[in-house]
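$ run holo --ligand "fe (ii) ion" --emit tokens
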Amino acid sequence: MRNRALQEFLDAARIAYSARARDPNSVSLLEQVFATLESPAPQSQSDSGRLPVCKYLTDIANPSVSDEPDLRQVMTTFFSIEPTLRWRRRQGDCSGASEGFAENHANAMIVGPGGLEPREGVWLGVSLLGPNVQYPNHRHPPQETYLVMNTGDFRQGRNEWVHVAKGETFYNPHNIPHAMRSNDLPLLVFWVLKE
Ligand SMILES: [Fe+2]
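-- output --
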């Protein structure tokens, strides 16, 4: 059986993602991911903990930040599981990152390797950037869809930055180089990946 708080978060994420995805590739990815997640995998008992950048979660947790019901439900259920997450810094290449990146970002896996529900093939996690932080260019074999909980800029390859508003999604095909950056506010973004 899956932990109830985790199930409620996944239900909320499914509703918000499904309602908001526009790219047909995103729609297909999300259908496959959430269909897979209908079958729980064993939960992990691993330790939890925040990093200093997580101080920004206090602002993000303000209900006024999420004035749309589906987003508010994502945030409410996220903050129920957040104390059980292990926030980590990115491992590996950080080329293209802004100065101070290491201290001003954190990632947490919710479902996937090292997450609350460790499993292969399907990942769902979250990234937090402090204000005016650029996440490094990176790429990975799985395709990915972000759900942006406030606003940020996203880029693929050498393309122009794309401004993505709160509640919008952004799709990255398999292996495409991509980056993101926050503006004057912290950025919280969920990501779903599938190989
Ligand atoms: Fe990515």
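-- notes --
The chain has a mean pLDDT of 94.
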